[in-house]
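Subject: design request, 214 residues
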């Protein structure tokens, strides 16, 4: 699992080649420490190229954040994502959430199919899924909480109750019927520049720069 506040680096080509060889071993069982790499390779071999090119890196990085959490969350994707979205909100620009809302149906279908098939000694089943409506509600709440905190901090009023109240007002405007209005999200967050942590590796910094340019 990547360290807190950091993203996993992309799987190296050597690991990819190693897994291609090992997949041919009939009845082989992999160690759970290899779960993230295994799923990343399956992602590359199956759905990665089917996604729009601008979403591929983001989808892979989200997968690499989800994979090491699957065991502790007992394959419950909605519970897992509820916690993960809060963590990601602190270290990614809003455009990452925009992309997640778009590719989530494809990635979730991949997880439902591929996770139970990973040859672990104790296999992981997907016991709970996350609907598009609920996903966008989670994304919207995370974004409006962060925005409300930033707005009130400048006024010296960053108490939790006031943040929650303002967040609710913002959410009512952004979340229409069952979906987020991403154009309104863009307008709301335009004044708040995203700061990239210079301690991140260059590949991650470039990915974040690419996101902020969308």
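Subject: RE: design request

Done. Sequence follows.
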């Amino acid at each position: 699992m990547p360290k807190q506040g950091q993203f996993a680096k992309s799987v190296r080509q050597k690991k990819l080649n190693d897994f291609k060889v090992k997949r041919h071993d009939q009845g082989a069982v992999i160690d759970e420490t290899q779960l993230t790499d295994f799923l990343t390779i399956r992602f590359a071999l199956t759905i990665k190229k089917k996604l729009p090119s601008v979403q591929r890196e983001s989808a892979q990085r989200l997968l690499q954040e989800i994979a090491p959490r699957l065991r502790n969350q007992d394959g419950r994707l909605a519970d897992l994502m509820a916690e993960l979205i809060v963590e990601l909100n602190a270290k990614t620009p809003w455009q990452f959430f925009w992309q997640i809302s778009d590719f989530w149906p494809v990635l979730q279908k991949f997880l439902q199919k591929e996770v139970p098939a990973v040859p672990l000694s104790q296999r992981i089943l997907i016991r709970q899924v996350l609907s598009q409506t609920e996903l966008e509600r989670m994304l919207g709440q995370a974004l409006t909480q962060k925005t409300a905190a930033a707005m009130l901090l400048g006024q010296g009023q960053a108490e939790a109750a006031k943040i929650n109240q303002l967040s609710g007002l913002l959410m009512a405007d952004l979340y229409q019927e069952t979906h987020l209005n991403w154009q309104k999200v863009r307008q709301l967050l335009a004044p708040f520049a995203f700061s990239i942590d210079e301690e991140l590796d260059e590949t991650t910094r470039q990915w974040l720069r690419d996101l902020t340019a969308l």
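Residues 1-5, 10-14 have pLDDT under 50 and may be disordered.
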